[in-house]
Write a structure and sequence with these properties.
Elements: H1 6-10, H2 18-21, H3 29-35, H4 71-81, E1 88-91, H5 93-105, E2 112-115, H6 122-129, E3 133-136, H7 149-158, E4 162-168, H8 180-190, E5 195-199, H9 214-217, E6 221-226, E7 239-242, H10 245-254
Parallel strand pairs: 2-3, 2-4, 4-5, 5-6
Antiparallel strand pairs: 1-7, 6-7
Helix pairs in contact: 5-6, 7-8
Bound molecules: pyridoxal-5'-phosphate.
The site of pyridoxal-5'-phosphate (PLP) has 15 residues, from helix 5 and strand 6.
């Protein structure tokens, strides 16, 4: 039996993993405004749609568990994205996709994710809450906020613990599109070492620039999508990961058994 500790008996939150105790929680758009004493109900910093989509809800089957991966959603999104149904995982928003990638590919205390700040905050939050290190290759305005493929190659050579490379295009918060030539270079330098995760949360605002064609060439490329932004459905919590069937199969082992609520 472990030793009784009066301090822990009084504050059992101290049993939490040390990296979680040290963590600064993710600041949602609403929390940031509330902390500053702000009021109102428009949060430009949440990137929500201003318009709501009218919907009717069928409530008579809430006694049943939902389909683990709802077929109608998978088929419709596969047709929309131009991939096969084996290349899709439906998730609770893009954020769950990020979390699942870290939990599936990074060993706590050993592996790392690579990102190109300034970038979306959840890559680091998911890495840190799961005990993965975060390696930053900062981009700069004089380089057009575009990741440097040679620097990335060097980092992957010297840091074999990197398992995920997160590239956001169009970039949040920069709005920058990473040129397809650079994304292909990143895919080439990551091959055999790490997954290249391209976050396309905003791709509907520049649809011709999707990296979906890279999926045909590279089984280690993953694309994150969401219905939260252009589809005006942030409250529904629905996102997608697109990749090769092998990668999707691994993620399916880790995702919760019934992640997608029936209304989705
Ligand atoms: C909004 C956003 C997401 C995911 O949002 P969800 O609401 O969880 O789908 C992912 N990546 C970026 C860059 C975003 O801005």
């Amino acid at each position: 039996m472990a030793d009784y500790c009066a301090e822990i008996a009084e504050a059992p939150e101290r049993l939490a993993r040390p990296e979680v105790q040290k963590l600064t929680p993710y600041q949602s758009a609403r929390r940031i405004v509330a902390a500053a004493g702000g009021r109102g109900d428009i949060w430009l910093n949440a990137n929500e749609s201003a318009e709501s989509v009218p919907m009717a809800l069928q409530t008579e089957r809430f006694n049943r568990y939902p389909e683990p991966q709802p077929e109608a959603v998978v088929e419709a999104y596969a047709a929309y994205a131009g991939v096969s149904t084996e290349q899709i995982l439906v998730t609770r928003g893009g954020d769950e996709g990020i979390e699942l990638l870290v939990r599936t590919f990074c060993r706590p205390g050993e592996d790392a994710v690579l990102q190109f700040p300034p970038t979306y905050g959840m890559y680091a939050v998911s890495a840190e809450t799961n005990g993965a290190k975060v390696i930053n290759l900062v981009t700069a305005p004089d380089r057009g906020w575009v990741p440097d493929a040679a620097e990335t190659a060097h980092t992957l050579d010297t840091r074999p613990e990197v398992k995920l490379v997160f590239a956001c295009s169009p970039g949040n918060p920069t709005g920058t599109l990473i040129p397809m030539g650079v994304l292909r270079k990143l895919a080439q330098v990551a091959a055999g070492r790490a997954l290249l995760v391209i976050d396309e949360a905003y791709i509907e605002f520049s649809p011709a620039d999707t990296a979906v064609d890279l999926l045909k060439e590279f089984p280690h490329v993953v694309i994150i999508r969401t219905l939260s932004k252009a589809f005006a459905l942030a409250g529904l919590r629905c996102g997608f990961l697109l990749s090769s069937p092998g990668v999707i199969g691994m993620l399916k082992k880790v995702i919760a058994p019934y992640p997608i609520p029936s209304p989705v």
